[in-house]
Design goal:
The complex is a heterodimer of chains A (388) and B (362).
Chain A: H1 2-30, E1 35-42, H2 49-68, E2 76-83, H3 88-101, E3 105-108, H4 112-125, E4 128-131, E5 145-147, H5 152-165, E6 171-177, H6 181-197, E7 200-207, H7 216-225, E8 229-232, H8 236-248, E9 254-257, E10 279-282, H9 291-303, H10 311-330, H11 338-349, E11 354-356, E12 359-364, E13 370-371, E14 375-380, E15 383-386
Parallel strand pairs in A: 1-2, 1-3, 3-4, 4-5, 6-7, 6-8, 8-9, 9-10
Antiparallel strand pairs in A: 10-14, 11-12, 12-13, 14-15
Chain B: H1 2-7, H2 10-35, H3 40-66, H4 73-91, H5 98-124, H6 129-149, E1 151-155, E2 158-162, E3 176-180, E4 185-186, H7 194-212, H8 215-225, H9 227-232, H10 237-260, E5 265-266, H11 270-273, H12 275-288, H13 293-309, H14 317-333, H15 335-361
Antiparallel strand pairs in B: 1-2, 1-3, 4-5
Helix pairs in contact in B: 2-7, 3-7, 3-10, 3-12, 3-13, 4-5, 4-6, 4-10, 5-10, 8-10, 12-13
Classes of the chains: A alpha/beta (388), B mainly alpha (362).
């Protein structure tokens, strides 16, 4: 019995080794065919897998559609997603695997921190990088890197502008996650812009990843501060708890959030009536009535799980279409090397205007930042409704 | 020639075999690099492999030679990584030559980790066994949590520290925020390369082997085997324990320097500086054999490359990784393999002995 088990296990080991060798060989042979290879990197396993899976699904969906419609400039597109477990070191490994595969352009990485590590490698090799959702400023501080989403500072500035310009409130409290880069990044810029716009921050309360269940102290402080609006630059899981506890504490103010709040209505066991009247700035909402969003949502639901249908999926989907638009503008051909493609795309990116599901008429500057109007959404009768 | 072989001590022979294995691997890498047979993935894995090998060898000093279970090894790596990355970002504009800057970064990273090793070692080494393991685990977590709330910036007035936010630093407009709390440090120069990493691995091996085969090493192992007996013959237990702890932390710090200068973004999370990493290093040590320095190097190579080789099985990767790990542990520990290994080496040993005896009588 022991022998059999031992044999079986060693057989598995050998098989796995051969399997991995085989796949790299196939990839090597495929290099001669005339295709454009788009690589994708994101967390497909681990804690952050919901973001990576969504973005990679979105990108795959776009690639399938493009191939069905005849490809980019008549060239077929191949897409390969690699897992980085939201870890910078693994992300560089994933990048190297895609480079060995013969990647022409990269959609990734999905999360900020790995993206900062990968963009340096991509800059060294001169491979075009378009991150769907890497929001940190440093993600794209090299000439060959662009992004689809807003950067953290932009969200903070846009939120403060929106609140001030529409006269929603003047006395503002903030609850942010001080152990999270996304949340602190938005808060810092919001704070600076609020000063410029004449908004008064009456309370700035923080929590960390270890204290994200009990917010009673923060809510009490906000209640005493006399704030009219609470700004929540955090993710929806914690926001749902805050809304619940604020209701219990009798705090009745307006709530305003960023794209992290998107998805709050689909949290399990969350009483959606609590989210009534919550405003958020988000580039994508799956209930939007425009044709592009409707088509995307329909196609996504046919192919993938509803749970991953969020703004990351939309960002990944748009990323591939943006590369397509830039490649068509630059007249990319299949015999160009990755470095030549990168040089051509870099120029073309500043010349195109893309209508995607995360914004209309998106344009880019040479520093890689997109310019698009954030959509303000308010939750009314349990659905996201446009405020404009 | 044959007489020379006979004169070599078994302990020296063990270390020479290890050096030979490492040298051959180095040559293979050089040849592959020169002939262009190396894939980007493999090239990218070279520095991590050396890093994990150094970590495993340094932890093996504590676990294998001193006989105490430490679960906070990633904490020392974290100190080395952050201290050196801070130094490199700070001096990037003033010391432009990487060949001066990086050795300095290595020294700073190693020494600051060693200092932490001593600070933590003094209270921790009063404990034994399970208690020591839990306390080192806690210290590792403390280090990780401190660096995630630490903000450090510099301007014309000097350094500013805060544990709140980057705005609380109150920097002048010309100031630069270097350590940004949860955002960590970004923009380190990419100074790590395979040659430096390999050189440090060699130094680590030489120090480890020489320690084991020295007077101090024998004293340390006597503490491991029987503390009371060691104390009764006048061995200063605390002193030797601290030496091992500090040395182990020093090399973990060097590994941290290699790690941080191989990536341009550095943040402290559970996977890279938390208990996950500490456990991973321990797994490498256990798989290679507790107390076997050569085994640590070999298993570091296997366990660093394995997750990448398993990418073809997609999301089942970590499951297969775990199964392979179990299989290797069982295989490595089974009586049959042990017999097989000892019979092979015994045969060789007997043959060598026979030959030298023949040579000697002539």
């Amino acid at each position: 019995m022991k022998k059999i088990i031992a044999l079986l296990l060693s057989a598995i080991l050998v098989l796995v080794c051969f399997a991995s060798c085989g796949s790299t060989e196939e990839a090597g042979n495929a290099n001669d065919e005339a295709v454009i290879r788009i690589g994708g990197i994101g967390p497909l396993t681990g804690d952050a897998s919901v973001y990576g899976t969504a973005a990679m699904n979105g990108a795959q969906l776009a690639v399938n559609e493009i191939n069905a419609a005849g490809g980019i400039n008549g060239i077929k597109v191949e897409f390969r997603a690699e897992d980085d477990v939201h870890d910078a070191e693994k992300s560089v490994n994933a990048y190297n695997i895609l480079k060995d595969w013969g990647m022409d352009a990269l959609v990734g990485t999905v999360t900020s921190n790995p993206c900062i590590a990968v963009k340096d490698e991509a800059a060294n090799d001169n491979i075009f990088l378009l991150t769907p959702s890497g929001t940190a400023v440093e993600c794209i501080d090299v000439p060959n890197a662009f992004r689809v989403c807003f950067s953290d500072p932009n969200q903070g500035v846009a939120s403060a502008d929106y609140i001030a310009d529409n006269a929603i409130a003047t006395k503002i409290a903030v609850i942010y996650n001080s152990s999270d880069a996304y949340s602190t990044g938005i808060y810092e810029k919001f704070n600076a812009q609020a000063g410029v716009k004449g908004l008064e921050i009456v309370a700035a309360e923080s929590f960390t990843a270890d204290t994200k269940t009990d917010f009673s102290a923060q809510i009490q402080n906000i209640k005493n501060s006399g704030a009219e609006l609470v700004f929540l630059p955090i993710y929806c899981q914690e926001a749902s708890l805050i809304l619940n506890q604020a209701k219990q504490a009798g705090l009745s103010v307006k709530f305003f959030g960023c794209d992290g709040l998107d998805g709050i209505l689909s949290i399990e066991n969350f009483d959606t009536s609590l989210a009534e009247g919550v405003m958020l700035l988000t580039p994508f909402s799956k209930d939007a009535q425009d044709e592009a969003t409707q088509n995307f949502v329909k196609a996504y639901r046919e192919n993938y799980d509803e749970e991953t249908l969020n703004q990351f999926a939309a960002d990944g989907y748009d990323a591939v279409y943006i590369i397509k638009a830039a490649a068509e503008k630059a007249g990319i051909t299949a015999d160009m090397s990755a470095s030549e493609i990168c040089d051509a795309l870099k120029v073309a990116m500043t010349e195109i205007s893309v209508d995607g599901v995360t914004g209309e008429g998106i344009t880019w500057t040479a520093d890689g930042e997109p310019s698009k109007a954030p959509k303000a959404v308010i939750i009314k009768d349990g659905v996201y409704t446009s405020m404009d | 020639m044959k007489k020379n072989i006979k004169a070599v001590k078994p302990a020296t022979k063990t270390s020479l075999i290890t050096y030979a294995i490492v040298a051959v691997l180095f040559l293979i890498v050089i040849i592959m690099d020169a002939t262009g047979a190396m894939s980007s993935l493999f090239r990218g894995l070279l520095v991590p492999i050396c890093t994990y090998a150094i970590l495993a060898v340094s932890l093996n000093l504590v676990v294998g030679i001193l006989g105490e279970l430490s679960l906070g090894h990633a904490g020392f790596m974290c100190v080395g990584a952050y201290a050196s990355a801070f130094f490199s970002v700070l001096t990037e504009d003033t010391i432009t030559n990487a060949w001066i800057r990086f050795p300095l970064a290595l020294i700073i990273g190693g020494i600051s980790a060693a200092i932490f090793g001593i600070i933590i070692g003094i209270p921790v080494l009063r404990l034994k066994g399970d208690y020591l393991a839990i306390v080192t685990l806690a210290f590792g977590e403390i280090i990780k949590n401190i660096v995630t709330v630490l903000y450090v910036g510099i301007d014309s007035k000097g350094l500013h520290f805060s544990a709140e936010s980057s705005m609380a630093l109150g920097l002048e407009p010309d100031g630069k925020n270097i350590i940004k709390g949860a955002l960590g440090i970004t923009g380190m120069p990419k100074d790590s390369n395979f040659y430096i990493a390999f050189a440090i691995l060699l130094v680590t091996l030489i120090v480890a082997y020489n320690l084991v085969n020295s007077r101090s090493g024998r004293a340390i192992m006597s503490i491991r085997d029987n503390r009371i007996a060691a104390e009764s013959i006048g061995i200063n237990v605390t002193k030797y324990k601290l030496i091992v702890f500090a040395l182990s932390a020093f090399f973990a710090g060097l590994a941290g320097v290699l790690y941080s200068h191989n990536l341009s973004s550095l943040t402290a999370n559970t996977n890279n500086f938390g208990y996950n990493m500490s456990i991973l290093i321990l797994v490498i040590v256990v798989l290679g054999g507790i107390g076997s320095i050569r085994g640590s190097v070999i298993s570091a190579i296997i366990l660093t490359a394995l997750p990448e080789l398993l990418r073809s099985v997609k999301e089942y990767r970590m499951l297969v990784y775990a199964i392979v790990l179990i299989a290797m542990m069982i295989f490595n520990n089974s009586e049959k393999t042990k017999n097989l290994r000892s019979s092979i080496s015994l045969k060789k040993f007997a043959e060598a002995k026979l030959k030298t005896r023949k040579g000697g009588t002539k």
